[in-house]
Amino acid sequence: MLAYIARRVAIAVMILFGSTFITYNLEAYAGDPLLGLAESTAPNKEKLIAQLTAQLQLDVPPPARYFLWLKGVLGGFIGHFDLGVTRQSRSVLDEIASAVPTTVRLLTTSTVLAIVLGITLGVISAIRQYSRLDYTMTFTVFLLFSLPIFWVAVLLKQFLAISFNDYLQDPKINYLAMLVIAAIVGVVLAGFVSGSRKRVLITWASGFAVTSGILIYIDQTRWALNPSLGIFVIGVCGVGLAYGLTYVFAGMHNRRALYAGLTSAALAVIMYYPFRALVPASAGFPQLLAVCLVMLAVAYFVGFFFTKIDKGPVIRVSILVAFLTSMLTVVDRLMQTWHSYMTDPAVDGRPVQTVGPMNTLLQTTDFWMITLDSLVHVALPTIALTLVGFSGYVRYARGSLLEVLNMDYIRTARAKGLAEREVILRHALRNAMIPLTTLVAFDIAGILGGAIITESVFGWHGMGSLFNVAIQTQDLKLLMGTFAITSFLAVMATLAADIIYSALDPRIRIGKK
Amino acid sequence: MASKKDKNVAKESTTVGENAIANRETEGLSQGQIIRRRFMQHKPAVAGLIFMIFFTLFMYSASGIHLGTEKNPINWQGWWPYTIRDITAASGAGDPSWAHPMGLDPLHLDYFALVSRGAEISLMVMVIIGGLGGLLGTIMGAVSGFFGGWIDAIMMRFTDFIITIPAILIGAVIGFRVGNLGVFALAIFLGLFSWTGLARLVRGEFLSLREREFVDAARVAGASNRRIIFKHILPNAIGVIIVSVTLLLAGSILTETGLSYLGFGVQAPDVSLGTLINQYQDAFTVAPWLFWWPGVIIILIALSINFVGDGLRDAFDPRQRRRIKRKDFQLEAAKSRPGK
Fold this sequence. Notes:
The complex is a heterodimer of chains A (513) and B (340). Chain A is mainly alpha-helical and 513 residues long. Chain A contains 21 helices and no strands. Chain B has helices spanning 2-14, 16-26, 31-41, 43-63, 111-147, 149-164, 167-177, 182-192, 196-209, 213-220, 225-262, 273-280, 289-316, 326-336, and strands at residues 65-68, 73-76. Chain B has a domain at 81-311: Orthogonal Bundle (MetI-like fold), CATH 1.10.3720. The longest helix of chain B has 38 residues, at 225-262. Helices cover 70% and strands 2% of the residues of chain B. Chain B starts with a helix and ends with a helix. The A-B interface holds A 11, 14-16, 18-19, 22-23, 26-27, 29-32, 130, 138-139, 142-143, 145-151, 154-155, 158, 406-408, 452-453, 456, 467-468, 471-472, 483, 487, 490-491, 494 and B 7, 10-11, 44, 157, 160-161, 163-166, 168-170, 172-173, 175-177, 250, 254, 257-258, 261-264, 274, 277-278, 281, 284-285, 291, 294-295, 298-299, 301-303, 306-307, 310, 319, 323.
């Protein structure tokens, strides 16, 4: 195993040398940094050209110049790591260091959402193979596969930002739109139930009724201007989550799971008022994280002590209920900041922004205001990236689970009388998820690579935008700095995926013929 | 692969009832006929195929074919009366009308002429990338998987290396270095770097197929390596190849339009669907049609190709069977009932 890893790392290093070399030379031939000066009419043109030549070492041919760059990078081994300076004489390392947090903020949520949503929907689609739901999902996935992200991004800007901001100026919902939205929600809900036509119709009707009720309430109370959930709604949602998650993960016969879930929900609701005191406006992200972690730990012990045998599903239900209900509390807290955020002069009633990661005019130290501001900015690019990213997961999760469900050991599991829930959750899903490791590893490694197109449309200055700018301005050092980091991560992700894969699947032995 | 087949055999023997129905559909048909028939049952795929054929003919005949260099151009004018350079005399905001079904752009150029030209170029780039990528991927994967050993090791590391080269850089080099023949050069160079995924798939397929008995039989009969690769193994792997080439096609139209959107793909004076979107995205509020048309067309092209790919996958996959409905069982029961 160690020998295998050593060999793979050695190969990876060679690939990295090769690809940085080629990239360096490609970029060197992709433009002429002297071109702008050659056309200039400045009197000291000759001097400027000589200066730039010296600064960028243009007198050295690109293949040789690559080794000058490499010398700086390899200097890292003796403590002089040097990625050089950009054409504006700023340190490349600093540029990257300031771009990385932006990119991580942009891509983390969308990557996690894409993975979670994609796998969940894929699994549902596979369980309901050949149902209406499955066909609709397949069509949706193909549609999303075919979407050019730059086009979606512009549409989102138009409809979710500009139109939504217009709506907030005068929050009145058109009754026709209300009916259409309620009907669509009904159709989506009805798609998830199976069974007789009557059952489907009842689901549709109740979905329609509840949604229109909520929309009328939102419209009449001008909820969008001053939204909140309140402890009562959170409590109802918590109980609903406890029942729903128990049904999915443990089955209604498992009363212990249900009681553990209900206890977690109750704890989360009890925390509603203390939460405000624990994470005040002067708090920071670490405090919020700490409170959430304590909550999850408590939920774990709730699950742990509620049952003696088969703790897994009970703990899962209890943790998930606690997590989701606490998230609702956080959302509620953010909603209560909404009004003061909206009326802030820097925002001026148009909260959803289409450019950049934050509102630079906003002067506040209120933790919740800052969080809300960054959420409002990250929302649109996250939606765009999730839409485009999650379709692959749906497809792979569905295909992989269907493949596993056809296997003999699943037939055995069913034959010995296990409930379908047990067959899928305990026997099929675990094996079906193994092939997804590769995808997940690549996507997580890709987080730092940035998203060139999305960053460009939404005006974020992350790694993707650095790369784009570097190519456009002929900035070789900047380009190589970003490229070296992203390609290093990509190569490492391949290696990590192979190792994790073999750890998860004992049938695969790496390093052995 | 072999073990999967075995499992299927085991499975088939346990579900005789279902198989009797499924087998009846394929009785007495050749492999090609079965595949064609399965493909025809996949309605979205057939719709996608028909759409692609008519759409391509429509777009190419509308704006004609413009090839060659600046000095000796090959121009065949299509049936659409306007070209991408004709400034029309119409007045107003340029809303879509009968004379200009897709409206006019701010310079009063006919937008249908621009869009059809863009679609034409995007389709051409897509086909070149897909074709070249498919060809190279098949060859690389076939050689790598068939010979194995150090050849395989070297070729797969080479593949890993090619994967790391970003397409945007290739676009930048072509945009700067190559003048007039930009679109062709761009398509060919992108094609030269797009074969990696396919090569891995084909390699995997060859690795398992070369262990099969029919390959041993061919070798014993004295067939050369070349003959075994092309006559024996390749036909068995063709399903995987065709399906991934269709997916590669759908992916490459998104790559090309994405690059063009960023300014690294098709360069002016040529137009592509991506450059059109880039050019008119700010006009959304005043002239939304300028933004909608190219995007919708990209989606239609990619969507129909994806559906064709899905249909082909179902058609080629021997494990995939049409779902047997309760109705079929009833029919079967009715048929087998004596005296009826």
